[in-house]
Design brief:
mainly beta; globular; disordered N terminus
């Protein structure tokens, strides 16, 4: 029996043979391993369908696109198709939403597309696909980010009135082609997306960007860089939180999407590694959950930041797993946080994707003293990339093992 199939059988045994009892948070329900260990990325869901992104590098770029998996029976995930497959690219970050506009009605999948080889000829940008029939997806549109940046890393999509906007992190745009790392795109008509604004930390705020000596004195640590990695929005969609690596979190007023305006910045202590990776908003937008990703010890942690006064954000708490706190030796990324997620049903709960330390469920009612309520560690050397919510289910994208389906 191969290692992969031994692991699949083990997971099935865990799911099928578990005693019949009241479901606990983070109970494993099902799993799907596409056999692409080391090359999987984020997982999201919509209407009983999971979408699994893909990773790659210049040395190993199979261009897997987005795997589409039917999880209407969560104990038996069933692959039904692929989308956003472009040669020489990855599709790491995803979003899926319902559309009902004059231009389009149906289900739409967004994928951030990046070139595996930064200087190669592959496309980079935002891919937009019709997944109304998920077994028969089709491309609606594609917004290129130009030849400078590799493409779109992380992003967020939000409806504002009768319009839809995407807020894209185009890492290193300012350094490579002069455009801001933040791109704001009108995607109301998914067949004809167009950019309405861009914003860059150097051009628009006078902050240094780039790598190494380019971004001193802010850049430090093992990965001294200043570029936009991720974008989050407040619940009302009027404030954008830009995770700008060693520059920390930059807050912008985007109440007018075509005119982003500076509000403030949260910066970690200069002695910290930096590496602000991503943000989620809890407490109805009053609390930012700030994730610092590191490549080795000291491992990245969660910072809880009061952002009620965007001009004066204040860290009020932090959270580490036992491994991250102890600096436990491990492979690259092993015990660092990756992506946080606020519970959409309870403003005082958060889910954290923590690579080899799995999923951590926190009570953040007292942000100064977050309490772990439950945790789940993936079997067989898994590394959790992200978590997302779909009804009563929690979907976890795992770099090595693909998709896990758990109870919330």
């Amino acid at each position: 029996m191969t290692r992969r199939w031994a692991w699949v059988v083990a997971v099935a045994a865990l799911v099928v043979c578990a005693p019949a009892a009241a479901a606990e948070p983070l109970d494993l329900v099902g799993a799907y391993d596409p056999g692409t260990g080391g090359l999987n990325a984020s997982a999201i869901g919509l209407d009983g369908i999971a979408y699994l992104g893909s990773w790659g590098s210049a040395a190993d770029c199979p261009s897997l696109g987005v795997r589409i998996i039917d999880v209407s029976d969560p104990a038996a995930p069933n692959p039904i198709g692929t989308a956003a497959v472009y040669d020489g690219t990855t599709a790491e970050h995803l979003a899926a939403v319902h559309y009902a506009t004059a231009a389009f009605t149906g289900s739409v999948l967004f994928a951030g597309i990046q070139r595996c080889n930064a200087s190669g000829g592959a496309p980079g940008g935002l891919a937009i696909w019709d997944v109304t029939d998920p077994s028969n997806p089709s491309e609606l549109g594609f917004l290129p980010t130009g030849r400078g940046p590799r493409g779109v890393h992380e992003f967020t999509v939000r409806q504002r009135g009768d319009r839809w906007f995407a807020y894209l992190a185009a890492w290193n745009s300012e350094i490579t082609n002069g455009s801001g790392d933040l791109r704001v795109v009108d995607v109301t008509d998914p067949r004809q997306p167009f950019e309405v604004a861009d914003w860059g930390a150097r051009r628009d705020a006078g902050l240094p960007v780039g790598a190494g000596a380019q971004c001193q004195p802010f850049c430090r640590g093992a990965v001294p860089q200043a570029a936009l990695h991720s974008v989050a929005l407040s619940p009302d969609g009027r404030t954008a939180y830009l995770s700008y690596w060693d520059l920390g979190v930059i807050m912008l007023d985007v109440s007018e999407p075509n005119m982003p305006r500076w509000l403030g910045r949260f910066a970690e202590p200069q002695a910290a590694e930096g590496n602000t990776h991503s943000v989620a908003l809890a407490h109805d937008g009053k609390l930012a959950l700030v994730a610092d990703e590191t490549f080795g010890p000291p491992w990245g942690r969660l910072r809880l930041v009061d952002v009620q006064d965007s001009g004066n954000p204040v860290q009020v708490g932090s959270f580490d797993t036992p491994d991250s706190a102890a600096g436990t030796p491990g492979e690259q990324y092993a015990y660092t946080i990756h992506n946080p997620l606020a519970d959409d049903r309870d403003p005082n709960r958060a889910y954290l994707a923590w690579y080899s330390d799995g999923i951590r469920l926190l009570d953040v009612a007292d942000a100064s003293r977050p309490v772990e309520l439950a945790n789940w560690i993936p079997p067989g050397g898994g590394m959790v990339w992200n978590v997302s919510l779909m009804g009563d289910l929690l979907l976890a994208g795992d770099i090595n093992r693909g998709l896990f389906v758990l109870r919330r």
